[in-house]
Amino acid sequence: MSETSKPTDDSGEMLDPLPKGESYRFACHQGVRCFTDCCRDLHLVLTPYDVLRVKRGLAMDSTAFLDRHTVQDTDPTWQIPVVKLKMEDSAARSCPFVTPEGCRIYADRPGACRAYPLGRAVRRSPSPSDPTRVEEEHFLVREPHCFGFEEGELWTAEAWMEDQGLGAYNEMNDLWMEFLSRYRPGSREDLAPAKWKMFFLACYSLDRFREFVFGTRFLSLFSIREARQEEMRRSDEALLRFAYTWLAYSLFGDPVLELRESPA
User: In the 3-class helix/strand/coil scheme, how is 166-225 assigned residue by residue?
Assistant: First the structure.
């Protein structure tokens, strides 16, 4: 493991670069003396895919989930609307889903919880042979309260991501970050309030976005293949991918959707 470490804030948290192929020891279970300590006093920003997975795992409508379990905020760097997981109103400010036995939404827990203690940075690095190529860098998040590094088996970043089921999360969150990379930080004033309302609807309130697509004149105005429509009806993931397409069209004017010549 690299010996290069640097503190990131006053909490004492450290980030250790993890070169490809290098390993670390880690385990998290009820026998670890810090079990669930990391589930308290969080400032956890949820990605659109996090919201999709958790609300679906709870069998909740997205609007009800957002109202009950999140707070709206503005990202200080990007100046865009984000949602954060709402902590319990108690001295410990615990996650509403943590129990003494662990996480009760474990199968659908947010990507940041799923990846911990692994961090991942991504950048697009297109080449003539692969215009969609992505380069990854990994690091370990070391917090003073965490004793998980003292036991368990050895992991590489690749093995940990596979074991924790991060493939779908990384795929969907990479689409999200690719979309955000189109937006110039600090330029929120360039978009009208109605467009910011649409941004929030498409990214986070997926059930309402489904109503927007299928319950209005939307499909009579835009030419969308029947197969794609059917996939969007059946799959939340397909609908979220389309939401990013719609935002690229409606916010940035990308020619990614085709208007019907004669609206039905």
Answer: CHHHHHHHHHHHHHHCCCCCCCHHHCCHHHHHHHHHHHHCHHHHHHHHHCCCHHHHEECC
Question: How far apart are alpha carbons 124 and 107 in whole angstroms?
Answer: 29
**C-alpha dihedral, 76 to 77 to 79 to 85, nearest 10°:** -50
Q: What pTM, to 2 d.p., does this model score? A: 0.89
Per-residue pLDDT of the chain (264 residues; tens, 9 = 90+): 233 334 444 444 588 999 999 999 999 999 999 999 999 999 999 999 999 999 999 999 999 999 999 999 987 776 788 999 999 999 999 999 999 999 999 999 999 999 999 999 988 776 677 766 678 899 999 999 999 999 999 999 999 999 999 999 999 999 998 888 777 655 555 667 788 889 999 999 999 999 999 999 999 999 999 999 999 999 999 999 999 999 999 988 899 999 998 655
Are 223 and 258 spatial neighbours (Cβ–Cβ below 8 Å)?
Answer: yes
Give, in order, the Cα–Cα distances in Å from 223 to each of 81, 93, 233: 29, 48, 16
- The answer to whether 34 touches 148, Cβ cutoff 8 Å, is yes
What burial letters (b/e) apply to 150-175, b meaning 16+ CB within 10 Å?
A: eeeeebbbeebbeebebeebbebbbb
Tell me which residue of 223, 81, 240, 256 sits closest to 168, measured CA to CA. 240
